[in-house]
């Protein structure tokens, strides 16, 4: 292509593509500078690690920030208009995840990106590909204190814990949990079998529901423009509040999607480093028995029970909510599943820290009274309860090799009953 033709093509493309909107002049309520909000409340927060995003700035000459969607210990997530869209087409929105730059090496900084790229490309034709978050684009962003890796995704809606709030008692009925669980398992099968990836951090925060109607994103952007949320204005940055509740009606929510692969690992070998949220932690992680794919199965079992009863089976009592103890966590597992297999303890690096040579727990005073899984499901009865318990019991087992894999779980009778109706 000759230089004049190239310039003409670029000029026409710029004319027909979406133009950035102007920064509104709507008054904004300013929050007290001493009040910690959003990412500032994360442990070991350092503002220099977070890119100082400004609403309506354009990133990578393409994505105009329109609202904040969320934050975490190592990133913030933003709703953005994709300016590489024809003017006559509906506005296209994306979610831009801007990683913190608190990594020792470039390789560490890009690890999440490379893993997400692998998951996105492994087998797009696989059914489970629909139930994991996949990458649309990526780029590096230069900030005042270094470079930030940015990943672009399709916008998602509320996490599972927010879906719980839509139901009485903050618990999901079994007829809702069943299809949600099956779709999560399909996503997990994709990660395990097609990608050979262990997620390690399955929880209600990291499974989001997709949007059945994308037009709601226009409303979110307009609401932030016309009635902006309060913000905290500092000398070097503005800390915005997240618009993570879209007000979408339940029937307009889409499929569950597994997100956040920042802590995921290669499944081709046994791992031993600490993982998982405290109350979701699998026993082999604590006693140093080595862990693999089955930690995700344990996580999912705990998560499902959390959804149907409003709390996980091994959650700490309210009086101990601010502290976590490996000993007390193991005690709660013993109270529900009984004592662990002695041979498993003998093969564990840290087994003797918690159990004697005969497999007796060294802290029996911590074991609460419980009648097993059966007693903690007080709101479910009859055939539904029996089938559900049989399903859950295939995931919550001491020995990792005794837990069923995703393929076997997907053929469980609990799902077959639904298919036959």
Would you spell out the secondary-structure blueprint of this structure?
Blueprint: H1 3-16, E1 58-59, E2 63-71, E3 75-82, E4 93-99, H2 106-121, E5 135-143, E6 146-153, H3 160-164, H4 174-194, E7 197-198, E8 207-211, H5 216-226, E9 231-233, E10 238-240, E11 253-258, E12 265-266, H6 283-287, H7 294-309, H8 326-337, H9 342-346, H10 351-354, H11 373-376, H12 382-393, H13 406-410, H14 413-420
Antiparallel strand pairs: 1-2, 2-3, 3-4, 4-6, 5-6, 7-12, 8-11, 9-10
Helix pairs in contact: 4-7
EC number: 2.7.11.1
Family: Belongs to the protein kinase superfamily.
InterPro entries: Kinase-like_dom_sf (IPR011009), Prot_kinase_dom (IPR000719), Protein_kinase_ATP_BS (IPR017441), Ser/Thr_kinase_AS (IPR008271), SRPK (IPR051334)
Structural class: alpha+beta
Task: Report, as a whole number of angstroms, the end-to-end distance.
Answer: 61 Å
Low-pLDDT windows of residues: none
Major sheet attributes = 6 strands, antiparallel
* Residues in β-strands, percent: 15-25%
Order of helices and strands: HEEEEHEEHHEEHEEEEHHHHHHHHH
Helix content: 25-40%
The outline comes out as: globular
In total, the number of strands is: 12
Rounded average pLDDT: 90
> What is the helix tally?
14
Q: Numbering strands along the chain, what is their spatial order in the largest sheet?
A: 1-2-3-4-6-5
